[in-house]
Amino acid sequence: MKPGDRVRLRASPSRVGTLTDEYDGPPNRRRVLVCFTNGDEEFVLIGSLEKVTGDSLRPYALIESGRYGTVNDLRGAITYYRLSGRLANLIYSLNTTNTQFFAYQFKPVLQFLDSPCRGILIADEVGLGKTIEAGLIWTELRARLDARRLLVVCPAMLREKWRDELNNRFGIKADICDAGEMLHIVQRMYRGEFEEFALITSIQGLRPPKGRQDEKTSTRSTAKLAAFLEEKAFDDPVFDMVIIDEAHYLRNPGTQTHKLGRLLRPICDNLVMLSATPIQMRSSDLFSLLNLLDEDAFPYPYSFEQTLKANRPIIQLRDSLLRGAVSREDFLEALQSALIWRIFEDSQQINHLIKYPPTNEELNSHQGRSLLAEKLDRINPLAKVITRTRKRDVQEMRVVRCPVLVRAEMTPVEADFYAAVTAGIREFCEGMDIHAGFMLTIPQTQMASCMAAACRAWGGETVHDDELEETIYEAYGGDDENAKGGNADNLGTLTRALIDITSEIGNYRELRRVDSKYNELVKSLKNYWMENPGKKVVLFSFYRGTLRYLHERLEEDGIIAIVVMGGMDKHAAINSFADPSGPNILLSSEVAAEGVDLQFSSLLINYDLPWNPMRIEQRIGRIDRIGQEAERILIWNFLYADTIDERIYNRLLVRLNIFEQALGTIEAMLGDQIRELGYYLLVHKLTAAEEAARIDQTALALETMNRTQETLEKEATQLIAHGEYIQNQVKAAQEIGRYVTGEDLSRYVRDFFVQEYEGSRFVQKEGDEEYYIAELSVEAKVRFGEFLDTHHLSGKTRILRDINPIILFENQVGIRKHRVEIISQYHPLIRFVSEKLRAKGKIGGYFPVSAIEVNRLTFSNVEAGIYVYAIARWSISGARDIERLEYSVKRMDTGDRLDNVLAERLVNTAAMKGRDWFGAQGVLEHRKIARIYDACLEDLESRFRDFEGDIQRENNDRINMMINTLERHRRSQSKKIEDRIFIHEQSGDERKMKLIPAEKGKLKKLNNKIDEKIAVLSNKQVIQSGEGNVSGGVIRVY
Predict the structure, then answer these.
(1) What are residue 24's phi and psi, to 5 degrees?
(2) What is the pLDDT of residues 134-157, one digit of tens each?
(3) Torsion of CA 132, 133, 138, 142, to 10 degrees
(4) Is the CB of residue 1021 less than 8 Å from the CB of residue 956?
(5) pLDDT tens digits, residue range 762-774?
(6) Rounded to whole angstroms, how far apart are CA atoms 274 and 244?
(7) Contact between 396 and 102 (Cβ < 8 Å)
(8) Which CATH superfamily is domain 399-687 in?
């Protein structure tokens, strides 16, 4: 050995360094100075060193000779592959966000990764965290694909919530913009000025205007943006992912909102749609959303129905497996019946299951049936397009709702006012069609909310447009683009008529003095706070006048309240209310509270009740949601006695159990039915018995509808993968560490820089060892700077700008510390290291075998003893690129093999919590260990062949489906373009004739693009696969 040679310690082969020409000690115990790769410099006995040669790292030979590395080698090797961002059995978003862990919220993440169309519809019920689920998908894409361009499209009142959620929970700084600003940003991106942005815009502010080709309309920013998006439809995607919140607003193909969805889908790589709308297999609304999500897979309603019918035998078999044991005969019969359908006639996966059916042992075990159910789901990739979770299926959401009716007996003054206004509305509505009538019931509901407030408003001389718009939103839900205009004019006319009624019989001061409803409110609140001092209360009213009135009166009575309604800074108000020293009660309108989380309160007051159960559920969902710690929540419903509202409440809403549970499947459809009922009762002079009979008739019809929808919900399983297997995957990932930790990142980065850039080091901060001062060598700074410039990431880190930058390795986004830079898996430093290691094509210098010992107290079901392990990396490239880390572990004394999950848990726990087993070399039978290690490799090779076959069959089925889908897409899109060309040719209009060359160019571009895609897919018919050693060795559990 000579100075400059790479050497390592014989007793600890993973400690590698460079030999110098400095010596110490007497001649018989000569020591030489070694510069180790971790930055240490030590004088070491020459006899304890050996030269590092290229052929000396053969795992079997190393084990046979008893030469083992350290726990850091095992952890580093695992981290190297994990940070590639491509491991299919790793959840990169797990434990990396500022969110509470709930397994069901990762179900959409895993299903999205398996989606054949790079899109998903998340249809969870209200309050389960659809926003968080979408954020987790984006977090996953950032890690896996280095996704950088995000667009969120949502109702205008949710923009601030999205901005805050992305920032606080996911560390994403997003900008709220309008159509013009978004167009400017995207154009700059195309000019190469930057590569990364996150934008939030409203559905209302982005949808294209009607007649946007008209000269007057075409100058609007929304029209310009629509033209730009159309132009880029056949280019590379503008956005890595688009999230559309409240996606049910896009369900009507005839609206401009739906056309916005049509513009966005071609220009985004991935699409996530969120909606609490129930899943109904016979619903045209659902088909419209799926058609928007993946037009090729759901081209028209007939094919949608055919797909469901073809899949029915597969789903029935899956559900039978999940319910209990299934005989092999029934299993095979169900598969044979599926082959008669065209979609499955060439299915290699079905034919393989028929040729090699499961054993009786697999069919009789819960785990075996669960795995078979997952295989059946994978036969039809469409099962990954929709995910739905219901509150009743989530243990974490088992909160008891306790509704209470608070009746306010009207005083004579109130009764006279109520009767006069009701009579006036009836007279005005006579002869009007029902749709106009819905609008005209709004003054009635304003009065039912608060007579004094309504009287005060009608006693004025003007009708405020902003208040009319908000009441229209309450009546129509915001998705009806025709809710304004004539109907609003009718509403204004009626309101002005009510001004005349008020001037004759209304007396605001008297109604205020005898306000029976307010008196009940104050009495109830004081009693509640006597028993629950300091508890926060949320009160809802759809009517702004009521909120202003209550705010004034509560303050007069010494109760501190804060109001939130449209046009206000609701986030500042919510933060003030959430402060323990802040206001006791929040007075909120419908619009302002949409999307707000108020689970720190356990009392909700409905000061008025909308004639729409979906609105009621959205209100309750503000406190009955993830994070609610109370075992039960109170829901106080305030009503004037002996009114239409009370009769609907008692005979309909209570009967349907609206307040005690989320109906889920029926709420969205109840609104029209109950509004129609309310309108009917309002405009017809009925006796009490006649009113009761009419309400009971509606209740019976709605109960029948509810039963029908429950049946349809069960049928929804034809498109939804079973959740048990997926949630078990998530729970296993949490338990066995299938995620990246801050310690993993620390080792990964420090080892790389010390080995690759001499002079670089990370010094632990004195007094706080979790913090490091980054000292990079000149060359490291130059190379890192080049990387930042190339990828436009200079603004994402201060490491090169600060002197002695302090860093913290913490793999959780959303964390901020003063003057400390957080290094997560998304940080440019991690990207830099990964890119350099990939370019070198090496594992990072980690020793291939390790000896580790770990305390058995860290395990729940692993016995003490010595275990031999092997880890392999499986890689397959086809329609999807898949990489996995797989584990095999056997006991040294018996040779018994641990099951796959337990094996992975043992090795990962040893990597995270174990320590170096320095005594391994002197106590083990190394040849026996080597033989068992080879048996582990043989086990991995056998399992890989099975896995490779499954993927090959799935790959072929998927590619055939994708090619068929592309051909259908070619035909449908070509026909649209050819029809436009024909219309232009027949028009004789010179201006339109000039558009023909551009249309022919689009047709050529479409065909070329599809031909290229089909050629690429055809090349992937034969998958490329490989497996390689990651680590091996021994683990002593003591």
Answers:
(1) -155, 160
(2) 999 999 999 888 899 999 999 987
(3) 90
(4) yes
(5) 999 888 878 999 9
(6) 6
(7) yes
(8) P-loop containing nucleotide triphosphate hydrolases (3.40.50.300)
